[in-house]
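Hi all, a correction to my earlier message: I attached the wrong file for ParB/Sulfiredoxin domain-containing protein. Here's the right sequence:
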Amino acid sequence: MAVKWFDEPEEHDYEAAADYLGMLAEDATVAATVNALKSAKLVYRKAKDILRAARLSLLPPDNPHVRSDVEKIGHGKKLSPILLVRGTPADALQIADGYHRVCASYLTDEDTPIPCRLVSWAPTT
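and the right structure:
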């Protein structure tokens, strides 16, 4: 079964990204980075590469959120694109929103191109 994706992330994805990123950076940096995500063009990356760059393990299929996304895939429903923030070469990529969707896509086909908005941490002025 092919994974289907919306053309744009859902608005609540940006709020979830801000909540997560707020644990890693100051409010002004988070706000600037989320604004950059909102205007970034979609790029496509494979699930296996996203997980490696983020240095994250694959969540198990019985994780409730992963299971829900796998079921959506099985029913032909679309998933929201992933929001990513590039780290430095010494730091990992941050999956600001969409870790469960990446895992569900990986479990379906690790080579499926996933639409992502990918930015670097935005500087504050």
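Sorry for the mix-up. The chain has one domain: 4-120.
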